[in-house]
Fold this sequence. Notes:
The structure holds two protein chains of two kinds.
Chain A: E1 3-12, E2 19-29, E3 34-38, H1 45-53, E4 61-69, E5 72-73, H2 79-85, E6 90-93, H3 107-118, H4 123-136, H5 142-145, H6 155-167, E7 173-177, H7 185-202, E8 205-210, H8 213-219, E9 222-227, E10 230-236, H9 237-242, H10 247-254
Parallel strand pairs in A: 3-8, 3-9, 6-7, 7-8
Antiparallel strand pairs in A: 1-2, 1-4, 4-5, 9-10
Helix pairs in contact in A: 3-4, 3-6, 4-6
Chain B: H1 9-30, H2 63-99, H3 101-116, H4 119-130, H5 134-161, H6 164-171, H7 176-212, H8 224-231, H9 239-266
Helix pairs in contact in B: 1-2, 1-9, 2-3, 2-5, 2-7, 2-8, 2-9, 3-5, 4-5, 5-7, 6-7, 7-8, 7-9, 8-9
The structure holds adenosine-5'-diphosphate and magnesium ion (MG).
Amino acid sequence: MLLEVKDLNIEFHDHLTPETVVYDFNLSLKEGEIVGIVGESGSGKTMSALAIAGLLNRKDMKKSGEILFDGKDLLTCKRSELRSYQGNDISMIFQEPMTSLNPVKKIGAQVEESLKIHTNLTKEERYQKAISILNDVEIKDPESVYHKYPHQLSGGMRQRVMIASAMILEPKILIADEPTTALDVTIQAQIIKLLKKLNKQKKTSILFISHDLSLVRTLCHRAIVMKQGYILEEGNIEEIFEHPKEAYTKQLIEAIPALEL
Amino acid sequence: MTIKKKPNYNFIIGSILTGLIVALALVSLVYTPYDPDAMDAANKFAGISLKHPMGCDNFGRDIFSRVMEGTKNTLFVALGTVAIGTVFGILLGAFTGYFGGILDEILMRINDAIFAFPSILLALVIVSLLGSGKYNVMIALGIAFIPSFARIVRAEFLKNRELDYVKSARLMGAGSLRIMFVHILPNTFSVLASSVMIGFNNAVLAEAGMSFLGIGVQPPDASLGRMLSEAQTYLFSTPSYAFFPGLVIILMVLGFSLLSEGISQKSV
Ligand SMILES: Nc1ncnc2c1ncn2[C@@H]1O[C@H](COP(=O)(O)OP(=O)(O)O)[C@@H](O)[C@H]1O
Ligand SMILES: [Mg+2]
């Protein structure tokens, strides 16, 4: 098993009374697998994902449980060890391609960032790798995009750039937190296709977070349904769609517009 | 689609004025018409002429040469002041803004306390401890300027550290220092640039003020503020003695202000 999350609880301590936002979260992710996390907004999807990515290390929050990556517990390992996984083995892309790129740095530098941190490649080698990954995410004319600033690109292009910079070291896990929510429908479909392709080609496991069940159905092998911090049900994608156990899941499925792309 | 913008007159005029003043100072490094300190009794209070375009002072020194020299010294002090203020302001603002916590609380309270004093008053205190002279003035004003820069930088860091691009950088395994100085700092430059210009402005005025009071740049070094103070006595007999240094100060301050306005207009 590549990633195993056991009984993860996340508590905020930044108010007078502690507030638990994720209860007993369990997840396992095999190599090459795509698992979806669905649920209404506020159900704790992002918090779980951030915890797995090792991004929830504020002092005012408490996490318990285990996040085992290759057998190593990311919750208790040293900061330096965690950092050596981040970018290298685990990457993440966010919802807003507008804000997830640094506005004052060129695309090339941002795509190469992981290489600068984790490798000793020369400038020329980094450039070659950047161009090749920009090609992989189907950006036309990567040589010119390399020298552009984020504001010169469209939302869809920016999200491709984000995927490129997350994928450049071919991580074992890519966490995608609502990567298409801010994009319009046709671009959404393209990004989903791209994720599928990367998963096939590079054997990257993907944790795909969305509140859009139809996207989850087209992309994922398995899915987890969350509500108010709890996992309601999980299982094979067809099983969940054909025979949902929970009333809430049924509601979510019924809410999908009967429009097929 | 490109929207045609109105030309940024503030920026253009500010650049020209600042450019002229800086050029004057740079030329003074290699050439002044006369030795700025050479006294010539025959030319005492000489009027404006081709040989002495701004006339001569009470010692018969060429005012134009002294204005050039004074501009150089004033700019030099301003540059040093702003450099000290920005470097330490950035360090302080970056660490407090990025890490927050108890260190932030303590440093920012100290900052507020320093900020509460008018910077020239604070500089006076420091100069009285260190002694006068242009380097001490630089240090004194520099220290007095740190809090305002620290505040600006801290606010920018507070804002930026929550943004997704910082999260992505952290996620790629970037360390705190790399995030602070490679990722966030460049995002503060546009705000910083305009406050650096305001800083120059205040530094020029503060240096002139301190030299005017006799605790800034010391003779024989010329300084615009010093010249003004020396010219007081002869204000009615030889108004050009006070007029030209004053004019240069005004143009300098105007140039920096316009430039600062222009920069903040540009970055919108
Ligand atoms: N600083 C905080 N303090 C307390 N609760 C928080 C804080 N930040 C987020 N939450 C809560 O955590 C819950 C889960 O949020 P999130 O994981 O972002 O939901 P989702 O991604 O599923 O929309 C929400 O109910 C939200 O209100
Ligand atoms: Mg979310």
